[in-house]
């Protein structure tokens, strides 16, 4: 009997211990604000599954995106490195990819956590949004594709969701239309009218050929504009499975359900071996959508419907882990790629952006609202349930954390800016390993954060800030998102200085009169910033004007039997798509 009891105790202990190499489920929302979740203080949006995830693990309340924009933030998340080190930081307005036929993307020389884990025998999958490039030189090289970066399986959007992807939801190109179409057409019209009047009054002899040329130029601009309107959606808004297009253009009907089914299917297929699943949601980036089960069910219109549908999806993933007995051996992480897009307001005045809580600003700028993101980690029996920490952490920290837990050595030939989170979230360390963090607005160093040892103060120094408009607003509404240079910003000399531990809303910049160590603090932070800048190596700019430009020879197209120019197919509806 004693032997039997001993065996039972040993068996119970073995089942209670987590796997030496856990599974990983990484859940990332798109443009979700830190104030949109119940566990972060929202009282009106229903997010019970994400709230349960938080109560079962640790909640990071000063979790920071490496960039306030999608593409660079996701690149840093995948590699544990600042975007500027990867060449994923723009010098121009366009800090993300808008076309699938762009030639830029995450360089093949970069090492992602998926590649590290695949080398350790993990099955890896990306379901949902990628937004880090596809091709370099032709339609078959797939140099930036997820499968070239360590993922065994990919199903989702190669680029991103945009308003232009859904009929009737407006456009992100309104400024471009105004500057490249409407203004030139007006200029040509005024020129033709003026020349015609001068010719009629016989004040100047204007050859007829001039009018023909101007007329043809106006016609060309108009034709190109109409072609863009007609073809943008099918050419850029489509779904892929591995290297094949599965639906072009993408349908929003039950899209979240399809992504969720893919995610849970991957877990089921790999339940007997270690796996990494990155479920990168399309929610809640505009264009907003939801299935009929969630439409008009929330208290916050289309945005609330989308948040609550995403929460349902999180619940489905967690349920499958419980069903298969994998929950105790799986580290689950939930976050957003950056803060909520506060300027997302429709022409009818409907708010399609989220809440950043008490924090100033939002997506596209480095006020706290643009970079504070949800950070939730759950690993039963390893991470204490109900823990909360306000220590500074970064989405870059996921890379070294996963690598260490999986037994994968970090690449020795490059700087890794992330830090292992486990000592902090297990309570073995009470202080963040990030003494300094650097906040970039595209390729421009915008702010420095300093958390001195043995101090409660968190200093933040800003070199420049965006010019919010209209006056008194909490965003750059005239341009739809804030820009990082020129007349769009205000430079500060000396830089603005805040103590976020006392002023998290960033309302009252410190001065020598209010902070005796003002100049000393700025001097220390500037020295560290200079050292950081010297550590950067020159790399090709993946977000240069050339690399973000649409290139017809890189355009992926699913040919239709009726017309090779239509770029339309629906293998999902036809049941032709194969599950891996």
UniProtKB/TrEMBL annotation:
<dbReference type="GO" id="GO:0046872">
    <property type="term" value="F:metal ion binding"/>
</dbReference>
<dbReference type="InterPro" id="IPR024607">
    <property type="entry name" value="Sulfatase_CS"/>
</dbReference>
<feature type="transmembrane region" description="Helical">
    <location>
        <begin position="181"/>
        <end position="201"/>
    </location>
</feature>
<feature type="transmembrane region" description="Helical">
    <location>
        <begin position="208"/>
        <end position="232"/>
    </location>
</feature>
<dbReference type="Pfam" id="PF00884">
    <property type="entry name" value="Sulfatase"/>
</dbReference>
<keyword id="KW-0479">Metal-binding</keyword>
<keyword id="KW-1133">Transmembrane helix</keyword>
<dbReference type="InterPro" id="IPR000917">
    <property type="entry name" value="Sulfatase_N"/>
</dbReference>
<keyword id="KW-0812">Transmembrane</keyword>
<protein>
    <recommendedName>
        <fullName>Steryl-sulfatase</fullName>
        <ecNumber>3.1.6.2</ecNumber>
    </recommendedName>
</protein>
<keyword id="KW-0472">Membrane</keyword>
<comment type="similarity">
    <text>Belongs to the sulfatase family.</text>
</comment>
<keyword id="KW-0732">Signal</keyword>
<dbReference type="InterPro" id="IPR017850">
    <property type="entry name" value="Alkaline_phosphatase_core_sf"/>
</dbReference>
<keyword id="KW-0106">Calcium</keyword>
<dbReference type="GO" id="GO:0004065">
    <property type="term" value="F:arylsulfatase activity"/>
</dbReference>
<dbReference type="GO" id="GO:0004773">
    <property type="term" value="F:steryl-sulfatase activity"/>
</dbReference>
<dbReference type="Pfam" id="PF14707">
    <property type="entry name" value="Sulfatase_C"/>
</dbReference>
<keyword id="KW-0378">Hydrolase</keyword>
<dbReference type="GO" id="GO:0005783">
    <property type="term" value="C:endoplasmic reticulum"/>
</dbReference>
<feature type="domain" description="Sulfatase N-terminal">
    <location>
        <begin position="22"/>
        <end position="408"/>
    </location>
</feature>
<dbReference type="InterPro" id="IPR050738">
    <property type="entry name" value="Sulfatase"/>
</dbReference>
<feature type="signal peptide">
    <location>
        <begin position="1"/>
        <end position="16"/>
    </location>
</feature>
<comment type="function">
    <text>Catalyzes the conversion of sulfated steroid precursors, such as dehydroepiandrosterone sulfate (DHEA-S) and estrone sulfate to the free steroid.</text>
</comment>
């Amino acid at each position: 009997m004693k032997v039997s009891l001993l065996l039972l105790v040993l068996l119970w202990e073995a089942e209670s211990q987590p796997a030496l190499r856990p599974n990983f489920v990484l859940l990332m929302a798109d443009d979700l604000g830190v104030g949109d979740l119940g566990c972060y203080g929202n009282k009106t949006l229903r997010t019970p599954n994400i709230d349960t995830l938080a109560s079962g693990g640790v909640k990071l309340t000063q979790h920071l995106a490496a960039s306030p924009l999608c593409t660079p933030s996701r690149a840093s998340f995948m590699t544990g490195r600042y975007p500027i080190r990867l060449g994923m930081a723009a010098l121009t307005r366009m800090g993300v990819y808008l076309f699938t036929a762009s030639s830029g993307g995450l360089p093949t020389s970069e090492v992602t956590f998926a590649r590290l884990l695949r080398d350790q025998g993990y099955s890896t999958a990306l379901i949902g949004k990628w937004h880090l490039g596809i091709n370099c030189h032709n339609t078959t090289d797939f140099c930036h594709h997820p499968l070239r970066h360590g993922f065994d399986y990919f199903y989702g959007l190669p680029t991103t969701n945009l308003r232009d992807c859904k009929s009737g939801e407006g456009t992100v190109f309104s400024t471009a239309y105004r500057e490249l179409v409407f203004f030139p057409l007006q200029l040509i019209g005024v020129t033709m009218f003026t020349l015609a009047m001068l010719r009629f009054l016989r004040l100047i002899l204007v050859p007829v050929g001039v009018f023909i040329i101007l007329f043809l130029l106006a016609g060309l601009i108009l034709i190109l504009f109409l072609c863009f309107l007609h073809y943008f959606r099918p050419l850029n808004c489509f779904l892929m499975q591995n290297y094949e297009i599965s639906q072009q253009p993408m349908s929003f009907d039950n899209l979240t359900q399809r992504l969720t089914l893919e995610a849970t299917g991957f877990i089921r297929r790999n339940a007997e071996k270690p796996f990494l699943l990155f479920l990168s949601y399309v929610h809640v980036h505009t264009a907003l959508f939801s299935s009929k089960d969630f439409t008009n069910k929330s208290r916050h219109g289309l945005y609330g419907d989308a948040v609550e549908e995403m929460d349902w999806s999180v619940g489905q993933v967690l349920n499958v882990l419980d069903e298969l007995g994998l929950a105790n051996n799986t580290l689950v992480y939930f976050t957003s790629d950056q803060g909520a897009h506060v300027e997302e307001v429709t022409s009818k005045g409907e708010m399609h952006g989220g809440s950043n809580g008490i924090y100033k600003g939002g997506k596209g700028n480095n006020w706290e609202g643009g970079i504070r993101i949800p950070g939730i980690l759950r690993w039963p029996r390893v991470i204490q349930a109900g823990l909360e920490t306000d220590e500074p952490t970064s989405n870059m920290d996921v890379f070294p954390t996963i690598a260490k837990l999986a037994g994968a050595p970090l690449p020795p030939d490059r700087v890794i800016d992330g830090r292992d989170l486990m000592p902090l979230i297990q309570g073995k360390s009470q202080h963040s390993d990030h003494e300094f963090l650097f906040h970039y607005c595209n390729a421009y160093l915008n702010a420095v954060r300093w958390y001195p040892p043995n101090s409660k103060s968190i200093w933040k120094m800003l070199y420049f800030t965006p010019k919010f408009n209209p006056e008194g607003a909490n965003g750059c509404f005239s341009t739809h998102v804030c820009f990082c240079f020129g007349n769009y910003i205000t430079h500060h000399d000396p830089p603005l200085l805040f103590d976020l531990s006392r002023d998290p809303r960033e309302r009252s910049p410190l001065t020598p009169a209010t902070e005796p160590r003002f100049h000393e603090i700025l001097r220390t932070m500037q020295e560290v910033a200079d050292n950081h800048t010297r550590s950067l190596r020159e790399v090709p700019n993946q977000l240069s004007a050339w690399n973000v430009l649409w290139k017809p020879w890189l355009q992926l197209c699913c040919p239709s039997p009726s017309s090779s120019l239509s770029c339309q197919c629906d293998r999902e509806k036809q049941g032709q798509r194969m599950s891996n």
